[in-house]
Amino acid sequence: MKWLVWQLGDSAFPVGGFAHSAGLEAAVQLGEVEDEAQLRRFLRDALWQAGHGSLPLVGAAHDDPQRLAELDALCDAFLTGAVANRASRTQGRALLSTCSRAFAGAAAQLDSLSARCRALGLCMHQTPLWGVITSVLGVGRQDAEQLFLHLTLRSLLSAAIRLGLLGPLQAQHEQFQLSATLQEVQTRCSQIAAEDVVQTAPLIELFQSAHDRLYSRLFLS
Questions:
Q1: Helix, strand or coil for residue 124?
Q2: Closest CA to 145 of 132, 126, 131, 128
Q3: pLDDT by residue (tens digit) across 116-146?
């Protein structure tokens, strides 16, 4: 199973996360993130936001994949910002398409998941799909949650590099420095019920909502 976890976490696994900055690009252009200290604060706030606003949906979907339609609708209602909502749908569909092809035949539920989502008219948001897909592939909940948080941070650091905020080696140092925060977020947020998702960093969503109005942009969100 560890081989599968490493494959899902590999940067070569094409799920579309590197096309998004989760509001960081807009924050930079708006002058809210201009140096490493401000970037570090943004990263910490984004991780706690993921813990309180996304991880509960991952865990609930992992525990009960039959709740996918309910949790997908909840995620759609929670993501009120048009840019964040669109990004979640785009990444969810990319995740499902990639896993359906990469792991075809690995699990009967996974083989029929795309058809089920289309039949139910789901938005196919990323977080509930991550929980369902890792569950049907046999990845444990703790591994699924930790990998989700790891990928959240890695995508942000990748965006920071391309935005010129720091270099690759400094990004690795920041990731190492934030490992304790990743563990704390997972420990404190793992048992939050899906119905109790909250915004802990609303400014980040506001930054992201301004993304479509930027004069020039590298990312989709």
A1: coil
A2: 131
A3: 888 889 999 999 999 999 999 999 999 999 9
What 8-state DSSP symbol labels residue 219? S
- What's the predicted TM-score (pTM) here? 0.93
pLDDT in tens, 51-76: 999 999 999 999 999 999 999 999 99
**Structural contact between residues 9 and 139, judged by C-beta atoms closer than 8 angstroms:** no
Output the CA–CA distances (angstroms, integers) from residue 153 to 24, 27, 130, 177, 204, in the order listed.
Answer: 12, 16, 16, 12, 14
